[in-house]
Design brief:
By secondary structure, this protein is mainly α. It is 84% helix and 0% strand.
Amino acid sequence: MVIIMKKNKSIAKNYIYSLFYEILVFIVPLLTTPYISRTLGADGIGIYSYTLSIATYFINFGKLGFQTYGQLKIAESRDNKAKLSIYFWEITITRFLSMMFAILLYIIVFFIDKEFSLYYFLLLIFFASSILDFTWFLQGMEEFKIITIRNSIIKILSLILVFLFVKDRNDLPIYFIIIQGSTLLGNISLLTFIKKNVNRVKFNELHFIKHLKGSLPYFIPTIATTIYLSLDKSMIGWITNSNFENGFYEQAHKIEQVAVTIVTSLSVVTMPRIAYFFNNKELEKAKTVIEETIQFSLLISIPMTFGLIGISKDLIPWFLGDGYESCINLLRIFSALIIVVGLNNAVGKQVLIPMKRQKEYNLSVIIGAVTNAVLNSILIFKFAAIGAAIASVIAETVILILFMYYAKDIISIKKIFIKSFKYIMSSAVMLIVLILLSNKLCNLRSWGNICIEIVVGLIVYIFMIFLLRDSYILNKFKFLKNKIINVFEHR
Protein backbone atom coordinates (compact mmCIF):
# COMPACT_ATOMS: atom_id res chain seq x y z
CA MET A 1 0.00 0.00 0.00
CA VAL A 2 1.30 3.41 -0.90
CA ILE A 3 0.19 6.43 1.04
CA ILE A 4 -0.45 9.21 -1.47
CA MET A 5 -2.16 11.77 0.66
CA LYS A 6 -1.36 13.37 4.00
CA LYS A 7 -4.31 12.74 6.27
CA ASN A 8 -3.80 16.03 8.01
CA LYS A 9 -4.57 18.11 4.93
CA SER A 10 -6.00 21.30 6.33
CA ILE A 11 -9.61 22.16 5.50
CA ALA A 12 -8.72 25.75 6.42
CA LYS A 13 -5.89 25.83 3.85
CA ASN A 14 -8.07 24.22 1.20
CA TYR A 15 -10.79 26.75 1.90
CA ILE A 16 -8.27 29.60 1.57
CA TYR A 17 -7.23 28.22 -1.82
CA SER A 18 -10.86 27.86 -2.82
CA LEU A 19 -11.76 31.29 -1.44
CA PHE A 20 -8.88 32.89 -3.33
CA TYR A 21 -10.36 31.52 -6.52
CA GLU A 22 -13.85 32.66 -5.54
CA ILE A 23 -12.47 36.18 -5.05
CA LEU A 24 -11.05 35.93 -8.55
CA VAL A 25 -14.44 34.65 -9.73
CA PHE A 26 -15.88 37.80 -8.19
CA ILE A 27 -13.31 40.18 -9.70
CA VAL A 28 -13.31 38.82 -13.28
CA PRO A 29 -17.07 39.26 -13.90
CA LEU A 30 -16.75 42.65 -12.21
CA LEU A 31 -14.38 43.58 -15.04
CA THR A 32 -15.85 41.66 -17.99
CA THR A 33 -19.62 41.74 -17.43
CA PRO A 34 -20.04 45.53 -17.89
CA TYR A 35 -17.82 45.36 -20.98
CA ILE A 36 -19.60 42.35 -22.51
CA SER A 37 -23.04 43.79 -21.67
CA ARG A 38 -22.23 46.89 -23.70
CA THR A 39 -20.22 45.15 -26.45
CA LEU A 40 -22.39 42.13 -27.28
CA GLY A 41 -25.70 43.55 -26.09
CA ALA A 42 -28.52 41.69 -24.38
CA ASP A 43 -29.40 39.78 -27.58
CA GLY A 44 -25.83 38.52 -28.07
CA ILE A 45 -25.62 37.40 -24.46
CA GLY A 46 -29.03 35.79 -24.91
CA ILE A 47 -27.77 33.70 -27.85
CA TYR A 48 -24.79 32.54 -25.81
CA SER A 49 -27.01 31.68 -22.85
CA TYR A 50 -29.59 29.83 -24.96
CA THR A 51 -27.17 27.71 -27.03
CA LEU A 52 -25.06 26.92 -23.98
CA SER A 53 -28.17 25.67 -22.14
CA ILE A 54 -28.88 23.26 -25.05
CA ALA A 55 -25.29 21.98 -25.08
CA THR A 56 -25.38 21.54 -21.31
CA TYR A 57 -28.14 18.90 -21.63
CA PHE A 58 -25.89 16.73 -23.76
CA ILE A 59 -22.77 17.41 -21.67
CA ASN A 60 -24.47 16.30 -18.47
CA PHE A 61 -25.93 13.28 -20.24
CA GLY A 62 -22.40 12.31 -21.29
CA LYS A 63 -21.00 12.82 -17.80
CA LEU A 64 -23.63 10.45 -16.40
CA GLY A 65 -23.02 10.73 -12.66
CA PHE A 66 -19.25 10.40 -12.74
CA GLN A 67 -18.46 13.90 -11.47
CA THR A 68 -19.80 13.16 -7.98
CA TYR A 69 -19.36 9.37 -8.08
CA GLY A 70 -15.72 9.68 -9.19
CA GLN A 71 -14.94 12.21 -6.47
CA LEU A 72 -16.34 9.91 -3.80
CA LYS A 73 -14.50 6.80 -5.11
CA ILE A 74 -11.20 8.70 -5.16
CA ALA A 75 -11.83 10.05 -1.64
CA GLU A 76 -12.43 6.50 -0.40
CA SER A 77 -9.29 5.02 -2.03
CA ARG A 78 -6.80 7.87 -1.85
CA ASP A 79 -4.58 6.02 0.67
CA ASN A 80 -4.04 3.14 -1.79
CA LYS A 81 -2.37 4.19 -5.04
CA ALA A 82 -2.89 0.85 -6.80
CA LYS A 83 -6.63 0.80 -6.07
CA LEU A 84 -6.95 4.50 -6.85
CA SER A 85 -5.23 4.03 -10.23
CA ILE A 86 -7.63 1.28 -11.23
CA TYR A 87 -10.60 3.41 -10.21
CA PHE A 88 -9.24 6.37 -12.15
CA TRP A 89 -8.79 4.46 -15.44
CA GLU A 90 -12.07 2.60 -15.13
CA ILE A 91 -14.04 5.80 -14.52
CA THR A 92 -12.11 7.85 -17.11
CA ILE A 93 -12.57 5.33 -19.94
CA THR A 94 -16.26 4.73 -19.16
CA ARG A 95 -16.83 8.49 -18.96
CA PHE A 96 -15.04 9.03 -22.29
CA LEU A 97 -17.24 6.50 -24.09
CA SER A 98 -20.43 8.03 -22.68
CA MET A 99 -19.25 11.52 -23.71
CA MET A 100 -18.58 10.36 -27.28
CA PHE A 101 -22.12 9.00 -27.47
CA ALA A 102 -23.44 12.35 -26.21
CA ILE A 103 -21.47 14.18 -28.93
CA LEU A 104 -23.05 12.03 -31.63
CA LEU A 105 -26.50 12.93 -30.31
CA TYR A 106 -25.55 16.61 -30.05
CA ILE A 107 -24.48 16.81 -33.69
CA ILE A 108 -28.12 16.21 -34.64
CA VAL A 109 -28.85 19.67 -33.21
CA PHE A 110 -26.83 21.20 -36.07
CA PHE A 111 -29.36 19.88 -38.57
CA ILE A 112 -32.40 20.97 -36.54
CA ASP A 113 -31.51 24.55 -35.63
CA LYS A 114 -29.99 26.26 -38.67
CA GLU A 115 -30.16 29.74 -37.09
CA PHE A 116 -27.55 29.02 -34.42
CA SER A 117 -25.63 26.18 -36.12
CA LEU A 118 -22.32 28.11 -36.01
CA TYR A 119 -22.59 28.58 -32.24
CA TYR A 120 -23.54 24.94 -31.68
CA PHE A 121 -20.46 23.96 -33.67
CA LEU A 122 -18.21 26.21 -31.58
CA LEU A 123 -19.60 24.63 -28.40
CA LEU A 124 -17.90 21.36 -29.41
CA ILE A 125 -14.96 22.94 -27.57
CA PHE A 126 -17.16 22.69 -24.47
CA PHE A 127 -17.45 18.94 -25.05
CA ALA A 128 -13.69 18.56 -25.48
CA SER A 129 -12.99 20.41 -22.21
CA SER A 130 -15.59 18.26 -20.41
CA ILE A 131 -13.91 15.06 -21.60
CA LEU A 132 -10.59 16.31 -20.20
CA ASP A 133 -12.09 17.65 -16.98
CA PHE A 134 -10.39 15.79 -14.11
CA THR A 135 -11.44 18.10 -11.28
CA TRP A 136 -13.40 15.18 -9.79
CA PHE A 137 -10.06 13.40 -9.27
CA LEU A 138 -8.35 16.40 -7.69
CA GLN A 139 -11.35 17.13 -5.44
CA GLY A 140 -11.32 13.53 -4.22
CA MET A 141 -7.61 13.94 -3.45
CA GLU A 142 -8.30 17.31 -1.73
CA GLU A 143 -5.80 18.98 -4.06
CA PHE A 144 -7.55 22.34 -4.06
CA LYS A 145 -4.32 24.30 -4.48
CA ILE A 146 -3.87 22.84 -7.97
CA ILE A 147 -7.52 23.46 -8.84
CA THR A 148 -7.19 27.05 -7.66
CA ILE A 149 -4.05 27.70 -9.73
CA ARG A 150 -5.61 26.12 -12.82
CA ASN A 151 -8.89 27.98 -12.50
CA SER A 152 -7.14 31.27 -11.77
CA ILE A 153 -5.06 30.97 -14.94
CA ILE A 154 -8.23 30.21 -16.93
CA LYS A 155 -10.00 33.28 -15.57
CA ILE A 156 -7.08 35.64 -16.12
CA LEU A 157 -6.42 34.28 -19.61
CA SER A 158 -10.07 34.61 -20.64
CA LEU A 159 -10.19 38.12 -19.15
CA ILE A 160 -7.21 39.30 -21.21
CA LEU A 161 -8.41 37.66 -24.43
CA VAL A 162 -11.94 39.07 -24.13
CA PHE A 163 -10.62 42.61 -23.84
CA LEU A 164 -8.18 42.07 -26.71
CA PHE A 165 -10.44 40.42 -29.26
CA VAL A 166 -14.12 41.05 -28.44
CA LYS A 167 -14.85 44.53 -29.78
CA ASP A 168 -18.46 44.48 -31.02
CA ARG A 169 -21.58 42.35 -31.62
CA ASN A 170 -19.93 40.64 -34.63
CA ASP A 171 -17.29 39.15 -32.31
CA LEU A 172 -19.80 36.84 -30.60
CA PRO A 173 -18.19 33.70 -32.18
CA ILE A 174 -14.81 34.84 -30.82
CA TYR A 175 -16.38 35.18 -27.37
CA PHE A 176 -17.55 31.54 -27.60
CA ILE A 177 -14.04 30.39 -28.55
CA ILE A 178 -12.33 32.37 -25.78
CA ILE A 179 -14.60 31.26 -22.93
CA GLN A 180 -14.68 27.59 -23.88
CA GLY A 181 -11.13 27.41 -25.25
CA SER A 182 -9.50 28.81 -22.10
CA THR A 183 -11.29 26.14 -20.05
CA LEU A 184 -10.03 23.45 -22.43
CA LEU A 185 -6.43 24.64 -22.07
CA GLY A 186 -6.80 24.67 -18.29
CA ASN A 187 -8.04 21.09 -18.26
CA ILE A 188 -5.18 19.95 -20.47
CA SER A 189 -2.77 21.42 -17.90
CA LEU A 190 -4.07 18.96 -15.28
CA LEU A 191 -2.68 15.98 -17.19
CA THR A 192 0.77 16.49 -15.64
CA PHE A 193 -0.64 16.03 -12.14
CA ILE A 194 -2.61 12.97 -13.24
CA LYS A 195 0.52 11.39 -14.70
CA LYS A 196 2.41 11.83 -11.41
CA ASN A 197 -0.29 10.39 -9.17
CA VAL A 198 -1.80 7.57 -11.23
CA ASN A 199 -0.09 4.34 -12.25
CA ARG A 200 -0.49 2.64 -15.58
CA VAL A 201 -2.63 -0.48 -15.36
CA LYS A 202 -3.30 -3.44 -17.62
CA PHE A 203 -6.49 -3.17 -19.61
CA ASN A 204 -7.60 -6.66 -18.60
CA GLU A 205 -7.54 -5.56 -14.95
CA LEU A 206 -10.24 -2.99 -15.56
CA HIS A 207 -13.96 -3.54 -14.99
CA PHE A 208 -16.31 -0.90 -16.35
CA ILE A 209 -19.84 -2.17 -15.80
CA LYS A 210 -19.73 -1.80 -12.01
CA HIS A 211 -18.89 1.91 -12.36
CA LEU A 212 -21.57 2.43 -14.98
CA LYS A 213 -24.09 0.99 -12.53
CA GLY A 214 -22.54 2.87 -9.60
CA SER A 215 -22.72 6.24 -11.35
CA LEU A 216 -26.35 5.93 -12.42
CA PRO A 217 -27.80 6.98 -9.02
CA TYR A 218 -25.75 10.19 -9.35
CA PHE A 219 -26.85 10.60 -12.98
CA ILE A 220 -30.49 11.11 -11.99
CA PRO A 221 -29.85 14.26 -9.93
CA THR A 222 -27.42 15.49 -12.60
CA ILE A 223 -30.15 15.38 -15.24
CA ALA A 224 -32.71 16.79 -12.81
CA THR A 225 -30.32 19.60 -11.86
CA THR A 226 -29.71 20.32 -15.54
CA ILE A 227 -33.43 20.64 -16.05
CA TYR A 228 -33.97 23.27 -13.40
CA LEU A 229 -30.70 25.12 -14.14
CA SER A 230 -30.83 25.10 -17.95
CA LEU A 231 -34.48 24.49 -18.83
CA ASP A 232 -35.42 27.97 -17.69
CA LYS A 233 -33.10 29.53 -20.29
CA SER A 234 -34.28 27.15 -22.99
CA MET A 235 -37.94 27.78 -22.16
CA ILE A 236 -37.45 31.55 -22.14
CA GLY A 237 -36.16 31.18 -25.71
CA TRP A 238 -38.93 28.80 -26.78
CA ILE A 239 -41.82 30.71 -25.16
CA THR A 240 -40.82 34.37 -25.53
CA ASN A 241 -38.77 33.94 -28.72
CA SER A 242 -36.65 36.78 -27.37
CA ASN A 243 -32.88 36.80 -27.08
CA PHE A 244 -33.21 39.97 -24.99
CA GLU A 245 -35.22 38.22 -22.24
CA ASN A 246 -32.58 35.50 -22.08
CA GLY A 247 -29.88 38.17 -21.98
CA PHE A 248 -31.52 39.93 -19.02
CA TYR A 249 -31.97 36.60 -17.24
CA GLU A 250 -28.38 35.53 -17.90
CA GLN A 251 -26.81 38.76 -16.61
CA ALA A 252 -28.87 38.90 -13.41
CA HIS A 253 -28.24 35.20 -12.82
CA LYS A 254 -24.50 35.70 -13.40
CA ILE A 255 -24.27 38.35 -10.66
CA GLU A 256 -26.19 36.12 -8.21
CA GLN A 257 -24.00 33.12 -9.14
CA VAL A 258 -20.86 35.00 -8.10
CA ALA A 259 -22.27 35.32 -4.58
CA VAL A 260 -23.55 31.71 -4.58
CA THR A 261 -20.12 30.39 -5.59
CA ILE A 262 -18.47 32.15 -2.65
CA VAL A 263 -20.99 30.61 -0.25
CA THR A 264 -20.74 27.08 -1.68
CA SER A 265 -16.94 27.05 -1.94
CA LEU A 266 -16.57 25.66 1.59
CA SER A 267 -18.94 22.78 0.79
CA VAL A 268 -16.76 21.82 -2.18
CA VAL A 269 -13.71 21.70 0.08
CA THR A 270 -15.27 19.81 2.99
CA MET A 271 -17.24 17.18 1.07
CA PRO A 272 -14.27 14.80 0.49
CA ARG A 273 -13.30 15.12 4.18
CA ILE A 274 -16.85 14.35 5.34
CA ALA A 275 -17.04 11.38 2.96
CA TYR A 276 -13.75 10.16 4.47
CA PHE A 277 -15.14 10.48 8.03
CA PHE A 278 -18.39 8.69 7.18
CA ASN A 279 -16.49 5.93 5.39
CA ASN A 280 -14.36 5.41 8.51
CA LYS A 281 -17.37 5.53 10.89
CA GLU A 282 -16.21 8.80 12.49
CA LEU A 283 -19.73 10.23 12.79
CA GLU A 284 -19.01 12.91 15.40
CA LYS A 285 -16.15 14.39 13.39
CA ALA A 286 -18.39 14.48 10.33
CA LYS A 287 -21.15 16.23 12.30
CA THR A 288 -18.70 18.85 13.55
CA VAL A 289 -17.55 19.73 10.04
CA ILE A 290 -21.16 19.79 8.77
CA GLU A 291 -22.31 22.13 11.55
CA GLU A 292 -19.36 24.46 10.93
CA THR A 293 -20.16 24.57 7.21
CA ILE A 294 -23.85 25.36 7.78
CA GLN A 295 -23.01 28.07 10.32
CA PHE A 296 -20.53 29.69 7.97
CA SER A 297 -22.98 29.45 5.07
CA LEU A 298 -25.66 31.27 7.07
CA LEU A 299 -23.18 33.87 8.30
CA ILE A 300 -22.28 35.08 4.81
CA SER A 301 -25.28 34.11 2.64
CA ILE A 302 -27.95 36.01 4.59
CA PRO A 303 -26.20 39.43 4.45
CA MET A 304 -25.29 38.84 0.80
CA THR A 305 -28.97 38.29 0.00
CA PHE A 306 -30.14 41.41 1.85
CA GLY A 307 -27.19 43.39 0.50
CA LEU A 308 -27.92 42.60 -3.15
CA ILE A 309 -31.56 43.56 -2.65
CA GLY A 310 -30.42 46.87 -1.12
CA ILE A 311 -27.92 47.91 -3.82
CA SER A 312 -29.53 46.36 -6.94
CA LYS A 313 -31.25 49.59 -8.00
CA ASP A 314 -27.90 51.39 -8.17
CA LEU A 315 -25.74 48.40 -9.11
CA ILE A 316 -27.48 47.25 -12.30
CA PRO A 317 -27.47 50.56 -14.28
CA TRP A 318 -23.88 51.26 -13.27
CA PHE A 319 -22.62 47.69 -13.75
CA LEU A 320 -24.47 46.59 -16.89
CA GLY A 321 -25.23 49.94 -18.51
CA ASP A 322 -28.35 51.39 -20.08
CA GLY A 323 -31.09 49.05 -21.27
CA TYR A 324 -30.71 46.47 -18.47
CA GLU A 325 -33.26 47.94 -16.05
CA SER A 326 -35.23 44.67 -16.22
CA CYS A 327 -32.33 43.01 -14.38
CA ILE A 328 -33.04 44.97 -11.16
CA ASN A 329 -36.11 42.96 -10.15
CA LEU A 330 -34.56 39.78 -11.54
CA LEU A 331 -31.53 40.23 -9.26
CA ARG A 332 -33.74 40.91 -6.24
CA ILE A 333 -35.59 37.64 -6.84
CA PHE A 334 -32.40 35.67 -7.58
CA SER A 335 -30.74 36.94 -4.39
CA ALA A 336 -32.86 34.51 -2.33
CA LEU A 337 -30.95 31.68 -4.01
CA ILE A 338 -27.77 32.68 -2.20
CA ILE A 339 -29.22 31.40 1.08
CA VAL A 340 -31.19 28.49 -0.36
CA VAL A 341 -28.47 27.08 -2.63
CA GLY A 342 -25.85 27.55 0.11
CA LEU A 343 -27.90 25.39 2.48
CA ASN A 344 -28.74 22.92 -0.30
CA ASN A 345 -25.04 22.29 -0.84
CA ALA A 346 -24.33 22.01 2.87
CA VAL A 347 -27.18 19.58 3.53
CA GLY A 348 -27.44 17.63 0.28
CA LYS A 349 -23.83 17.24 -0.79
CA GLN A 350 -22.35 16.99 2.69
CA VAL A 351 -24.91 14.77 4.40
CA LEU A 352 -27.09 12.80 2.01
CA ILE A 353 -24.44 11.93 -0.60
CA PRO A 354 -21.56 10.99 1.77
CA MET A 355 -24.03 8.93 3.85
CA LYS A 356 -25.07 7.13 0.64
CA ARG A 357 -28.65 8.34 0.89
CA GLN A 358 -28.67 8.77 -2.85
CA LYS A 359 -32.27 7.62 -3.22
CA GLU A 360 -33.51 10.44 -0.98
CA TYR A 361 -31.20 12.94 -2.68
CA ASN A 362 -32.41 11.91 -6.13
CA LEU A 363 -36.09 12.05 -5.15
CA SER A 364 -35.64 15.58 -3.75
CA VAL A 365 -33.90 16.86 -6.87
CA ILE A 366 -36.40 15.20 -9.21
CA ILE A 367 -39.32 16.79 -7.35
CA GLY A 368 -37.51 20.14 -7.56
CA ALA A 369 -36.93 19.72 -11.30
CA VAL A 370 -40.57 18.82 -11.95
CA THR A 371 -41.67 21.80 -9.83
CA ASN A 372 -39.39 24.07 -11.85
CA ALA A 373 -40.60 22.76 -15.21
CA VAL A 374 -44.28 23.10 -14.27
CA LEU A 375 -43.85 26.61 -12.85
CA ASN A 376 -41.75 27.68 -15.84
CA SER A 377 -44.47 26.61 -18.26
CA ILE A 378 -46.97 28.75 -16.33
CA LEU A 379 -44.96 31.76 -15.18
CA ILE A 380 -42.79 32.42 -18.26
CA PHE A 381 -45.93 32.89 -20.38
CA LYS A 382 -47.14 35.57 -17.96
CA PHE A 383 -43.94 37.18 -16.64
CA ALA A 384 -41.18 36.10 -19.10
CA ALA A 385 -37.72 36.08 -17.45
CA ILE A 386 -39.10 37.15 -14.06
CA GLY A 387 -41.40 34.11 -14.11
CA ALA A 388 -38.40 31.83 -14.70
CA ALA A 389 -36.54 33.45 -11.79
CA ILE A 390 -39.51 32.93 -9.43
CA ALA A 391 -39.77 29.29 -10.58
CA SER A 392 -36.07 28.72 -9.84
CA VAL A 393 -36.33 30.10 -6.30
CA ILE A 394 -39.42 28.03 -5.49
CA ALA A 395 -37.87 24.85 -6.95
CA GLU A 396 -34.64 25.25 -4.97
CA THR A 397 -36.66 25.91 -1.80
CA VAL A 398 -38.66 22.72 -2.34
CA ILE A 399 -35.41 20.79 -2.68
CA LEU A 400 -34.04 22.36 0.52
CA ILE A 401 -37.14 21.41 2.52
CA LEU A 402 -36.86 17.80 1.33
CA PHE A 403 -33.09 17.68 2.00
CA MET A 404 -33.64 18.89 5.56
CA TYR A 405 -36.38 16.33 6.13
CA TYR A 406 -34.18 13.43 4.96
CA ALA A 407 -31.18 14.67 6.99
CA LYS A 408 -33.07 15.46 10.20
CA ASP A 409 -31.25 12.72 12.15
CA ILE A 410 -27.93 14.48 11.43
CA ILE A 411 -28.99 18.13 11.24
CA SER A 412 -31.39 19.91 13.57
CA ILE A 413 -33.75 22.14 11.55
CA LYS A 414 -34.60 23.99 14.76
CA LYS A 415 -30.91 24.82 15.28
CA ILE A 416 -30.64 26.19 11.74
CA PHE A 417 -33.51 28.61 12.37
CA ILE A 418 -32.06 29.64 15.73
CA LYS A 419 -28.63 30.25 14.18
CA SER A 420 -30.24 32.25 11.38
CA PHE A 421 -32.14 34.65 13.65
CA LYS A 422 -29.26 36.99 14.58
CA TYR A 423 -27.97 37.04 11.01
CA ILE A 424 -31.44 37.93 9.69
CA MET A 425 -31.86 40.70 12.28
CA SER A 426 -28.41 42.12 11.49
CA SER A 427 -29.03 41.91 7.74
CA ALA A 428 -32.45 43.58 8.06
CA VAL A 429 -30.87 46.56 9.85
CA MET A 430 -28.20 46.65 7.14
CA LEU A 431 -30.88 46.68 4.41
CA ILE A 432 -32.67 49.63 6.02
CA VAL A 433 -29.41 51.56 6.21
CA LEU A 434 -28.62 50.74 2.54
CA ILE A 435 -32.04 51.98 1.37
CA LEU A 436 -31.65 55.23 3.33
CA LEU A 437 -28.08 55.66 2.08
CA SER A 438 -29.13 55.06 -1.54
CA ASN A 439 -31.75 57.79 -1.26
CA LYS A 440 -29.24 60.09 0.42
CA LEU A 441 -26.79 59.60 -2.44
CA CYS A 442 -29.57 60.71 -4.81
CA ASN A 443 -29.25 57.50 -6.83
CA LEU A 444 -25.96 58.64 -8.37
CA ARG A 445 -24.86 55.33 -9.88
CA SER A 446 -21.10 55.65 -9.76
CA TRP A 447 -18.35 53.23 -8.79
CA GLY A 448 -17.60 55.28 -5.69
CA ASN A 449 -21.20 55.23 -4.44
CA ILE A 450 -21.51 51.47 -4.95
CA CYS A 451 -18.31 50.98 -2.93
CA ILE A 452 -19.65 53.28 -0.18
CA GLU A 453 -22.87 51.25 0.00
CA ILE A 454 -20.97 47.93 0.20
CA VAL A 455 -18.53 49.14 2.86
CA VAL A 456 -21.25 50.79 4.98
CA GLY A 457 -23.43 47.68 4.68
CA LEU A 458 -20.54 45.46 5.77
CA ILE A 459 -19.72 47.68 8.76
CA VAL A 460 -23.36 47.77 9.89
CA TYR A 461 -23.67 43.99 9.60
CA ILE A 462 -20.48 43.29 11.56
CA PHE A 463 -21.45 45.84 14.21
CA MET A 464 -24.87 44.22 14.64
CA ILE A 465 -23.37 40.72 14.85
CA PHE A 466 -21.13 41.80 17.73
CA LEU A 467 -23.94 43.82 19.32
CA LEU A 468 -26.18 40.72 19.33
CA ARG A 469 -23.19 38.70 20.64
CA ASP A 470 -23.31 35.87 18.14
CA SER A 471 -21.48 32.97 19.80
CA TYR A 472 -20.01 31.61 16.53
CA ILE A 473 -18.34 34.90 15.61
CA LEU A 474 -17.21 35.61 19.19
CA ASN A 475 -15.58 32.16 19.45
CA LYS A 476 -13.82 32.60 16.10
CA PHE A 477 -12.68 36.10 17.07
CA LYS A 478 -11.36 34.80 20.41
CA PHE A 479 -9.56 31.91 18.66
CA LEU A 480 -7.93 34.29 16.16
CA LYS A 481 -6.91 36.67 18.94
CA ASN A 482 -5.24 33.83 20.89
CA LYS A 483 -3.44 32.66 17.74
CA ILE A 484 -2.00 36.14 17.15
CA ILE A 485 -0.90 36.42 20.80
CA ASN A 486 0.80 33.00 20.62
CA VAL A 487 2.68 33.99 17.46
CA PHE A 488 4.12 37.13 19.12
CA GLU A 489 4.93 35.27 22.37
CA HIS A 490 7.01 32.67 20.51
CA ARG A 491 9.08 35.23 18.66
